[in-house]
């Protein structure tokens, strides 16, 4: 798959000495949805700001569709649409005028049909003559997306796009992202909402304290690092795990009323364990399984890094 964005050795150290970003190497593929996960202050926005030319890197290079983001800033920036966290619009301007102005800023010729389609896709066409200050918070967020799409970028950055919006609007935005990808747009999403990445991403990057901890296909990551848990409700509580079950990843919970078996997707021996319980005369009344979410994996990765 073609690489549309390449980040090589990019770091950021401010004049105060604060290291906001350690050297980052990252390639983004054409047409993918890439989710960059990390807690607040991890370096997500700093990295995006460097890629988009808002912040100057201390070291490294950014290449966008073959254009060096520092030496050929205009060409690189024209390929990128950015939806920032904060509202950055003229509150007394209309929706339609704001989006048209954004298109002109990037040197694009007027195209009323394209602008209309963008606004319709975002359910903003009926609000085209409304002043932005008259819109709800969710509609203002949609205007930011329309501005970012106004010049037909190949790459769209969504920096914490659903912060402060309700669940219904968040799901609408997920649908929009999938529609954009279907049209060929490459999307980079930063978020600390794990469910957002789990819902949308093809690949996941984890950043913490300015360092990229991991980059992996989402499905492969969940298969490799995801754990499963089976809770076996016992008919008779136990004081301790029987010696015959030593070597199994089992533990007691709920004051000995539940036997918990932890395993990965490639090392599942549930039937063997249940048969073993039968041999030992251990009765049970219920079974419940739980599969790790991307959030579980993320927390585990960050905790492991902190402990290292």
UniProtKB/TrEMBL annotation:
<dbReference type="InterPro" id="IPR003593">
    <property type="entry name" value="AAA+_ATPase"/>
</dbReference>
<dbReference type="Pfam" id="PF00005">
    <property type="entry name" value="ABC_tran"/>
</dbReference>
<dbReference type="GO" id="GO:0005524">
    <property type="term" value="F:ATP binding"/>
</dbReference>
<dbReference type="InterPro" id="IPR017871">
    <property type="entry name" value="ABC_transporter-like_CS"/>
</dbReference>
<keyword id="KW-0813">Transport</keyword>
<protein>
    <submittedName>
        <fullName>ABC transporter ATP-binding protein</fullName>
    </submittedName>
</protein>
<keyword id="KW-0547">Nucleotide-binding</keyword>
<feature type="domain" description="ABC transporter">
    <location>
        <begin position="5"/>
        <end position="234"/>
    </location>
</feature>
<dbReference type="InterPro" id="IPR027417">
    <property type="entry name" value="P-loop_NTPase"/>
</dbReference>
<keyword id="KW-0067">ATP-binding</keyword>
<dbReference type="InterPro" id="IPR050763">
    <property type="entry name" value="ABC_transporter_ATP-binding"/>
</dbReference>
<dbReference type="InterPro" id="IPR003439">
    <property type="entry name" value="ABC_transporter-like_ATP-bd"/>
</dbReference>
């Amino acid at each position: 798959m073609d690489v549309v964005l390449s980040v090589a050795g990019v770091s950021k150290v401010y004049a105060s000495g604060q290291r906001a970003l350690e050297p980052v190497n990252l390639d983004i593929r054409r047409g993918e949805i890439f989710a960059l996960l990390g807690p607040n202050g991890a370096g997500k926005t700093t990295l995006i700001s460097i890629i988009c030319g808002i912040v100057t890197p201390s070291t490294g290079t950014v290449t966008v569709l073959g254009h060096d983001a520092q030496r050929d800033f205009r060409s690189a920036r024209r390929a990128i649409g950015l939806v920032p966290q904060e509202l950055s619009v003229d509150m007394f301007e209309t929706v339609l005028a704001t989006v048209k102005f954004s298109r002109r800023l990037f040197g694009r010729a007027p195209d009323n049909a394209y602008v209309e389609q963008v606004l319709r896709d975002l359910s903003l066409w009926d609000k085209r003559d409304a002043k932005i200050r008259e819109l709800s918070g969710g509609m203002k967020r949609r205007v930011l997306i329309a501005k970012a799409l106004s010049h037909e970028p190949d790459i769209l950055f969504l920096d914490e796009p659903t912060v402060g919006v309700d669940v219904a609007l968040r799901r609408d935005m997920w649908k929009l992202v999938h529609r954009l990808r279907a049209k060929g747009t490459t999307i980079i999403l930063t978020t600390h909402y794990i469910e957002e990445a789990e819902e949308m991403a093809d690949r996941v990057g984890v950043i913490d304290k300015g360092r990229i901890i991991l980059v992996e296909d989402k499905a492969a990551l969940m298969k490799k690092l995801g754990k499963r848990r089976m809770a076996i409700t016992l008919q008779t509580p136990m004081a301790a795990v029987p010696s015959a079950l030593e070597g199994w990843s089992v533990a007691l919970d709920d004051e000995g009323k539940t036997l918990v078996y932890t395993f990965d997707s490639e090392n599942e021996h549930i039937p063997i364990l249940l048969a073993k319980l039968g041999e030992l005369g251990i009765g049970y009344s219920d079974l419940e399984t739980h599969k790790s979410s991307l959030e579980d994996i993320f927390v585990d990765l960050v905790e492991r890094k902190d402990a290292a």
